[in-house]
TrEMBL record:
GO CC annotation: cytosol
Protein name in the entry: dTDP-4-dehydrorhamnose reductase
This protein's record includes keyword Secreted: no
Oxidoreductase keyword on record: yes
Organism taxonomic ancestry: Bacteria, Bacillati, Actinomycetota, Actinomycetes, Kitasatosporales
EC number of the protein: 1.1.1.133
Gene: rfbD
Length: 311
């Protein structure tokens, strides 16, 4: 390394085996200035404060993708979910406060009540409707309290990608198994490709380290809006399948232990303060995602079975 060469930026990614975590590693791996530590759940229990302190030490940017993600199970195990989504985040924030690292914490639209009619701004009042959202809000508040200058909360929603279970993959798999599907059409949100979000997180981390991005809440979701039914139909249309196989229904047809917000459409004004653009429109991202190998293979299988169906 020459005397004039910039030192590599030291990144720590927690929850590195998850869908978003794996995409972050792909994005960072293409960055010649990144020195990456990737920790899976088996490598780091974020509910262990001593282990968290040791893991964070020596890093410039910490991206927390570690989370309890089973929304319905959190209703029966709220303390366990909050230990990860709330207390564990506090441990990370404490460690970053001691070391001077920037923390990018991935949160959720579920901290909001879901009763709005227009896109919710970053400073909208929080009021979770389920245990999962309550636990995530504990984590958000810890970041704000302990890292007022170096803490970043990025709320996302309706996430899909190549590296984990998700709605888009499920719809394509079911297309190969069923003639028609009933899909909820009264919940509104912004389908967000995890790879695109990973890229934006990396950009935000760089801006944060350079002192160009104010700390606080950012909304990391696609632009535009649709329903689950609209997402399923667009997935089929872009994959060469018949979108009329998707039939609209209501949330009452699929009662689940945890309540879901009816309106998860978020505003994205805060990105301008960091000199960054919001994520693209959801259809644009979906088309790009469906061209990637995992989704393309699922779509090809579904098209083959659709062509074999009796007309």
């Amino acid at each position: 390394m020459t005397a004039n060469a910039a030192a590599p930026v030291r990144w720590l990614v927690t929850g590195a085996a998850g869908m978003l975590g794996q995409d972050l590693l792909s994005v960072l791996g293409a960055d010649g200035t990144a020195e990456i530590t990737a920790l899976r759940r088996a490598d780091l229990d974020i509910t262990d404060p001593a282990a968290v302190q040791a893991a964070v030490e020596g890093h410039d940017i910490v991206v927390n993708c570690a989370a309890w993600t089973n929304v319905d199970a959190a209703e029966a195990e709220e303390d366990a979910a909050t230990a990860v989504n709330g207390t564990g985040v506090r441990h990370l924030a404490e460690a970053c406060a001691k070391s001077g690292a920037r923390l990018l914490h991935v949160s959720t639209d579920y901290v909001l009540p879901g009763d709005a009619t227009e896109p919710c701004p970053e400073d909208a009042p929080t009021a979770p409707v389920n245990a999962y959202g309550r636990g995530k809000l504990v984590g958000e508040r810890a970041v704000a309290e302990l890292l007022p200058e170096h803490g970043y909360v990025v709320r996302t929603a309706w996430l899909y990608g190549e590296h984990g279970p998700n709605f888009v993959a499920t719809m394509l798999k079911l297309a190969a198994q069923r003639d028609t599907l009933d899909v909820v059409d009264d919940q509104h949100g912004q389908p967000t490709w995890s790879y695109a979000l990973a890229g934006r997180l990396v950009e935000l981390g760089r801006a944060a380290l350079a002192g160009q991005a104010p700390a606080g809440v950012y909304h990391g979701t696609a632009s535009g809006r649709t329903t689950w039914c609209g997402l399923a139909r667009e997935t089929y249309a872009l994959s060469g399948l018949d979108p009329e196989r998707i039939r609209p229904t209501t949330s009452e047809a699929f009662v689940r232990p945890a309540a879901r917000p009816a309106f998860s459409v978020l505003a994205h004004d805060r990105w301008a303060a960091a000199g960054l653009a919001p994520l693209p429109e959801w259809r644009t991202m979906l088309a790009e995602a469906l061209a990637t190998p995992v989704f393309a293979e699922l779509a090809a299988t579904a098209r083959t079975t659709e062509s074999d169906r009796p007309q």
